[in-house]
Amino acid sequence: MPHPPGTLVRCELTKWGGSPHWSYAAVLLGDDQHGTWLGFPAGTRFERPGRSFVGRHDHVGLVPAPVAGRAPWHLATFHTAGSPWPSLGGSAAEIYIDVTTPAEWDGTVLRAVDLDLDVVRGFNGTVIVDDEDEFLEHQAAYDYPPEVVAAARASADALVALVGGRAAPYDGAHGVWLDRLHSLR
Question: Where are the transmembrane segments (predicted)?
Answer without folding.
Answer: none
